[in-house]
Write a structure and sequence with these properties.
By secondary structure, this protein is α/β, with parallel strands linked by helices. The protein is built from 9 helices and 10 strands.
Length: 231
Amino acid sequence: MYIPIIDIFGYFLESKELMKNTLAGLYVITDEKLTPYSGGKIFEFVEKALKGGARFVQLRDKSNKEEELFNLSLELKKLCHRYGAFFIINDRVSLAKEVEADGVHLGKEDEPLEEAIKKLKGKIIGVSCYGSLERAKWAESLGVSYVAFGSFFPSPTKPESQLVPLDLISKAKRELKIPICAIGGITLERAEELIKLGADILAVISDIWLAEDIEKRAKGYTQLFKKYGKL
């Protein structure tokens, strides 16, 4: 459970002392097609997910230049903090530092992890480990905040992703001390099994943004995390 603190601007902020204990829950990732920027749709969709209890919002944009994402990032950060959620940026370490995002998520093709940790001291650092427990152990040894495994199911967003076995979660839970995030083809119907295996965080794209009622779908995930004592 997190304890929100209200700053002088009226936004809900997380106490840094609690950060390590609050890395759990629904993690929604934006998509350039599913959360379009035009007409402010991205803010509308993200706020619905936040109202449903999303604990993390990741801005994932592989197309636009960083200067084009600056104002968008600032507004998304404000929106996340209003709901006591973390704002994470995918890949772009310099942008994350410039807008003072809560953290960054890195894949194996992104900026070297050691350099990102130096540049973003005290921030959340998440790392994609795919199906590699060894990569996760290495990342943990460097001091990252959480590791992500997947895809566990066929992903409509990344159809080329290789599937990894479900028991990787329970193995990782036994050998790692940091939170574990599951990603890839996750739906509300599949979520409970992943949480029961030990996943602390579920990263979701399509099942949230394509839902007829985004807030209701997000609440469904939030209720599962509460059921198993994660929130």
